[in-house]
Amino acid sequence: MIRWLCVGWIAAISCIGLTQSFFQYCHASVWWFSLFFALLFYYLLWFKDYSRSYFILSLLLKSIAVLSIFALGWSYADHQLKQRLADEVQYRQTVQGIVYIQSISDGKLENWRQNAELLIPNENRSLKILLYPKRIYNAAGEAIGLSTEKLQLGQFYQVIVDIKPPHGYVNPGGFDQEKWLLQNGIHGTATVLYSQPLSADEIQRMGWYRFVVEQQRPLAQWRLWIEQLRLSYRQQLVGDTAANQNKALLLGLLTGDRSGISKDSIELYQMMGISHLLAISGPHVLILAAMLTWVLMQILHALMRRGVCRNLYQYIPKPYVCLPIFLLCVSFYVAFTGFEIPALRTWIMVFICSLALLLRIRISPFTTLLCAACVVLWWDCFAILSAAFWLSFGASAILLLIYQQVQEKKQEPSLGLIERFKVLIALLWQSQWRIFIALLPIVLWQFQAVSLISPVINLIAIPFLSLVIVPLDIIAALIWLIIPSFGHLIWSMAAFLLAMFNHVLLLLQPVAAWLYLPSYLNVFALLSLSIGIILISLPKGLIPRYWAAFFILLTFIPQKRALLQFDILDVGQGQATLLRTANHQLLIDTGGPAWQEGQASMGDRVIVPFLRSQGIRSLDEILLSHLDLDHSGGAAAVIDHIRVKQLRSNSYDKVLTNYPAVPFIRCDQGQAWQWDGVNIEILFPRENYSRRNQNESSCVVLIQTEMLGQPFKILVMGDLGWEGEFYLLQDYPDLTADILVLGHHGSRHSSAYDFLAQVNPKLAVISAGFDNRYGHPTPETLARLQALNIAYVNTADLGAIHIELKQHQSIWSWQSARATRQWLLPKSTALRLDFAD
């Protein structure tokens, strides 16, 4: 029963934020009574040994209990979610307030960011925000520093910040920044405009006496001391430059601080399938705790030999003395690493096992793991949103399964040393492949790629890093506190060994790159693969194995598509749309480039992940409406990762359209073709039209098919303005459309009143950036739409927009990416899903 209750609780928390209306019934208080009576009657049957005689009744009571715990779990998660969303920043504003720096920063230079507590005197509240730097320039316009270079740990500052609500690009398959901010409890992001240090006395005189007192309490001071210790290790190992990547990796293995690890190092470990080793794991925690426990026990024994507590073991058995010391060491290191999920899992499992040992209760390993997962989610239900939660507990479950199978096998006591070594290697190899296969759906879902060489590399990397590098790293850190020079010597030794290991990885990189495969599986395919792997993992004889083969086969069977699918992606202040027919794909525009060095373009950040999540391996054509970078900047990234058969644009450019493997065609009025019953036609520009003004010579695309015997049309305008609209209506005076993608992101110089009146769309779609500096869509454009009673949606508010026509005899429909989770809902519609009684 305990296992089933744990599974019900985990399943409930995993549904956090879902917007389906039937979840409102989970808030009913009747679930408390149903859970109580179901458990009461179930354990009465169990106590009287009637559970087998009344099997149906027992199964019914168990089902009611699991359903009740599911409802209560979702209600708890929903309550926590609503509380956190209510505290978020609602709109952009410039705020003068006080910040307290209570943790070390992350990243360096342009990638620098700092968690801070923002105290707002006018509103008498505090917010957890993520600070970003603002560049400081001299009179000559040269960058001379960052606005946050001097923020010190444990210090108060009076600041002026430009604060924004949590907001990111919302597209299927893309990184959900708002989910990441929510998971980390961050209420908003801010750019520091001005900062000045203040003393604690000055803060108290401003009316924040209670907050200052809280920071001076023992627990807060202990947390601050841990952060200062982590900062000391960062300064000793990487300093301000992080030039030595081996020492930066040592810092990550020691404290979980990955701010000094370069992008190249992370990509190398990802390609090898060992990036999980850069995070603090259970073995890290246990190794350090065992070392500290051994040292402390040796000190205790030395004191006992000197007559201090000589008779201690006569009153308290030795294991009961050792156990609390071990628990304290585990607790210290978990706090030291910032309560990362793998470390937290180990901490809770150690406590459960220790409690069972003290109380002499037998608990199976799987029950312990499930209980640990439930406690983690009770502690922080938002941990379910992290990939680390699923990977950590999933890998632990597989290892426990392998351990149980090994225990069930008969041991051969006469095996020699070589035979035992062979058995150990075989066991390690078997465990790596089982973990690889079992976690494959999660890896493909979270990272959209898999390294086929990872089981082989992990077979070497896990023992080497866990048994050699991590112990040396921990020993060096402990000795550095006493004899700094000796600690640095051991760190140098560990860095040398790690450099040799990384050199081997670099030698294997060409092979790993060939075996590093991107995923093109959509949600249905991933679900089929997951079911197949689960069926394979079940005990023999429970379910025939051919069912597993059936579901795995479904993964690779192409699914039947709708007649027409059209997606307007959320790429900020730019545009990218995708047309899909039954057998073809056309990408119209590719969003913006990387505006700063080291950043990714919209092709890398949005379009390629979206295409892979939809199972799209190739594009029949990329059509760039024009060559402004906010429409063409992501093309190179798309062509690098996705096979493209043809490139079309309004003009040729030696840089932006010159791809030797992709033929180029200039788009001109009159070009037309048909794909699977869908007609695509270029309406503008005319063949002899000047291409000097990129906006006014944008390619205008009309997509047309039949719906219920009537034409269904989608018109994509690029950045065409009033002038181009005038010529377009001259050539096509009867032009109409059901869906209109507004020109130039809703600029006031496009979408003229007469043009909108003639086209008369049922829905206008605006592709614009959130809080963009141009003010798109402008009030003038919105006023024209409202005057003509034209419904409109904006990707800045609703994320990606998906339009679909399933077949000729159906009606088109649309949905937004932000409608899938409560934290993504626009603030104006968030109240629609308030299910609280």
UniProtKB/TrEMBL annotation:
<dbReference type="InterPro" id="IPR004797">
    <property type="entry name" value="Competence_ComEC/Rec2"/>
</dbReference>
<feature type="transmembrane region" description="Helical">
    <location>
        <begin position="345"/>
        <end position="363"/>
    </location>
</feature>
<dbReference type="InterPro" id="IPR052159">
    <property type="entry name" value="Competence_DNA_uptake"/>
</dbReference>
<keyword id="KW-0472">Membrane</keyword>
<dbReference type="InterPro" id="IPR036866">
    <property type="entry name" value="RibonucZ/Hydroxyglut_hydro"/>
</dbReference>
<keyword id="KW-0812">Transmembrane</keyword>
<dbReference type="GO" id="GO:0030420">
    <property type="term" value="P:establishment of competence for transformation"/>
</dbReference>
<feature type="transmembrane region" description="Helical">
    <location>
        <begin position="370"/>
        <end position="403"/>
    </location>
</feature>
<feature type="transmembrane region" description="Helical">
    <location>
        <begin position="277"/>
        <end position="300"/>
    </location>
</feature>
<dbReference type="GO" id="GO:0005886">
    <property type="term" value="C:plasma membrane"/>
</dbReference>
<dbReference type="InterPro" id="IPR001279">
    <property type="entry name" value="Metallo-B-lactamas"/>
</dbReference>
<dbReference type="InterPro" id="IPR035681">
    <property type="entry name" value="ComA-like_MBL"/>
</dbReference>
<keyword id="KW-1003">Cell membrane</keyword>
<dbReference type="Pfam" id="PF03772">
    <property type="entry name" value="Competence"/>
</dbReference>
<feature type="domain" description="Metallo-beta-lactamase">
    <location>
        <begin position="573"/>
        <end position="770"/>
    </location>
</feature>
<dbReference type="InterPro" id="IPR004477">
    <property type="entry name" value="ComEC_N"/>
</dbReference>
<feature type="transmembrane region" description="Helical">
    <location>
        <begin position="320"/>
        <end position="339"/>
    </location>
</feature>
<dbReference type="InterPro" id="IPR025405">
    <property type="entry name" value="DUF4131"/>
</dbReference>
<feature type="transmembrane region" description="Helical">
    <location>
        <begin position="489"/>
        <end position="508"/>
    </location>
</feature>
<feature type="transmembrane region" description="Helical">
    <location>
        <begin position="54"/>
        <end position="77"/>
    </location>
</feature>
<feature type="transmembrane region" description="Helical">
    <location>
        <begin position="515"/>
        <end position="536"/>
    </location>
</feature>
<dbReference type="Pfam" id="PF13567">
    <property type="entry name" value="DUF4131"/>
</dbReference>
<protein>
    <submittedName>
        <fullName>DNA internalization-related competence protein ComEC/Rec2</fullName>
    </submittedName>
</protein>
<dbReference type="Pfam" id="PF00753">
    <property type="entry name" value="Lactamase_B"/>
</dbReference>
<feature type="transmembrane region" description="Helical">
    <location>
        <begin position="31"/>
        <end position="47"/>
    </location>
</feature>
<feature type="transmembrane region" description="Helical">
    <location>
        <begin position="456"/>
        <end position="483"/>
    </location>
</feature>
<keyword id="KW-1133">Transmembrane helix</keyword>
